[in-house]
Amino acid sequence: MMYDAGLILEGGGMRGLYTSGVLDFFLEKNLEFKDCFGVSAGCMNGMSYIAKQKKRAYDVSMNYLHDKRYASMYSLITTGNYFGYDFNLNVIPNELNPFDYETFKNSPTNFYAVVTNIVTGKAEYKKITDLKEDIDYVWASGALPLLAKKVKINDSYYLDGGISDFIPVGASIRNGNKKNVVILTQDPNYRKKLEPQQKLISIWYYRYPKLVKAMKTRHIRYNKRISRIKEEAKKGNLFVLQPQKPVQIKRLEKDSKVLQGLYEDGYQDAKRQYDALMQYLES
Fold first, then answer.
1. Tens of pLDDT along 139-160?
2. DSSP run (H or E) holding 22
3. CA atoms of 149 and 134, how far apart (whole Å)
């Protein structure tokens, strides 16, 4: 069923397994949204959700954990990207775990990849209609600072959307969505701290002062956004799904047992809150 609402998917690296669990439950219930905004790992999860491929995002995250072509220091050293570009964007979707490009293209949902323009330090929201043509925007949305090369698209350079707009509720509201479902990847008590690599970031990206500033203030902006989301959810203006206990995994976690547990938490949380979600969407 299609709802006139926005779906916002936070990033968080391998914490995105939680989001995978939620979205797979949504697919079982045939839940669709007018707009979907994906940030970083949320963007990657959103792809398979829009293509209606249940368990695909989970399988991609889990099946290649220890393949150096998927994500490794070897890949970072040899290609400049911790996550292998060709393996993730070509080998997996076209050979190992085929992506349903046609279903994605024909979806009634408007799908947006959130990226950060490294010159302006601002977020841009790129509507993805044909994944074969627009895949670099999805890649840019998850291009982590220091762990990925900046992504050139046309005449602009981009990095991780989570630098500038980590939870794009405002963008969804500007699109006319009065109802928004937000999937977060940290527990309700989590608050972000200043990046420990901030000095290195300042040096590495010295040519892009607005990007450096955005990184330096990200924890402050993130915490304010989380507080606002919490307030709006209490008022009934947003519906939030998120882990209910601290997520004790690293952004680049490779423990499959821990990651599977996080996926199951997402699925069960969505199942448990399904009736409340329906009441919110249909009220």
1. 999 999 999 999 999 999 999 9
2. helix 16-28
3. 18
Q: How far, in Å, CA of 203 to CA of 217, rounded?
A: 16
Contacts 24+ apart (CB under 8 A), 256-264: 256/62, 256/65, 259/14, 259/17, 259/61, 259/62, 259/65, 260/17, 260/62, 262/15, 262/17, 262/18, 262/21, 263/17, 263/18, 263/20, 263/21, 263/58, 264/21
Question: What b/e string do you get for 32-58 counting C-beta neighbours within 10 Å, with b at 16 or more?
Answer: bbbbbbbbbbbbbbbbbbbbebbebbb
The C-alpha atoms of residue 191 and residue 84 are separated, in whole angstroms, by 30
Would you say the pTM of this structure is higher than 0.85?
yes
Judged by DSSP in three states, 146 sits in coil
Pairing type for strands 156-160 and 110-117 reads antiparallel
Instruction: Tokens 């290609």: give the residue.
Output: 79
- Give tens-digit pLDDT for 231-256: 999 999 999 999 999 998 877 888 99
What would the pLDDT profile of 68-101 be if each residue is shown by its tens digit? 999 999 999 999 999 999 999 999 999 999 999 9
